[in-house]
Amino acid sequence: MSTEITRNNIKQETDNKITVIDFWAPWCGPCKIMDPVINQMEKQFADNIHFGKMNVDGNEDIAKQYKVMSMPSIVLFKNGKAVEKVTGIYSAKQMAHYLKRKLAEI
């Protein structure tokens, strides 16, 4: 299960080779569509990628800091630094391909 990311733990939770944070909201329909995909990716890549989820409700400042303007948005961190953001709905196959490419870069 993904770690709940807050303003208090984002620094420590992204201090990994690769961290993926799912920026979501409970009222966001597309986020609900992506949730099972993210859960599947977490199981598939658990040994190599740290996964977290940040509810943007109440964390608007953090979302703005990472330029999350629409959801769902996935922000990829490498060694604590946000390096890339993808927005929208992706199939499990598309997301797995993306994450495999990112792992190949490290």
From TrEMBL:
Listed Gene3D superfamilies: Glutaredoxin (3.40.30.10)
Domain Thioredoxin positions: 1-104
Superkingdom of the source species: Bacteria
Signal sequence extent: none
Keywords: Disulfide bond, Electron transport, Redox-active center, Transport
Pfam families: Thioredoxin
CDD domains per the UniProt record, alphabetical: TRX_family
InterPro entries reported for this sequence: Thioredoxin, Thioredoxin-like_sf, Thioredoxin_CS, Thioredoxin_domain
Protein family: Belongs to the thioredoxin family.
Family annotation (NCBIfam families): thioredoxin (TIGR01068)
Official protein name in the record: Thioredoxin
Gene: trxA
